[in-house]
Every structure is written in C-alpha cells, then in structure tokens.
Amino acid sequence: MYHGQRNTLAFVRTISVQKENSDLKKQLLQDYAVLIMLEILRYFDIFCELKLEDQERRRILKV
After folding, report:
1. 2: left (phi over 0), alpha (psi -120 to 50) or beta
2. Which helix (H) or strand (E) covers residue 6, if one does?
C-alpha cells in the first residue's frame, strides 16, 4: 500500500467517524428535546392540578 492509499483510507475513516458523531449529536439533541417536552408537560400537569384544586376550594367556600 502506498502513501496516497493510506491517506485516502484515513480520510474515509475520518469522514465516517464524523458522520457517526453527527448522527449521535442529532440523536442526543432529539433525546434532549423529548426530555424538555416531558418536563414542560409535567409542569403543565402540576399547574392544571393546582388550578383544579383551587377551583374546587373556591366552590367549597361558596357553599
């Protein structure tokens, strides 16, 4: 194998690893986006629950 072939193989391997890293970064960002959405939904759920409790408390106080 001559020098040019080794450089070409090293370049191809580098591109391959960069693509894998890029794919992993995309997957990681998607995973973080899902976690953030779940956290937002959790806080929204807590907010709605508190609002319902408050409405129920007000209804009880009116009676």
Report:
1. beta
2. helix 3-62
Q: How far apart are CA 7 and CA 17, in angstroms?
A: 15
Q: What is the mean pLDDT of the chain?
A: 85
Please state the pTM of the whole predicted model. Answer: 0.58
Residues 17, 24: Cα–Cα separation, whole Å: 10
3-state secondary structure 7-56: HHHHHHHHHHHHHHHHHHHHHHHHHHHHHHHHHHHHHHHHHHHHHHHHHH
Distances, alpha carbon 32 to alpha carbons 8, 22, 41, 43, 54, in Å? 36, 15, 14, 17, 33
Does the pLDDT of residue 12 top 80, yes or no? no
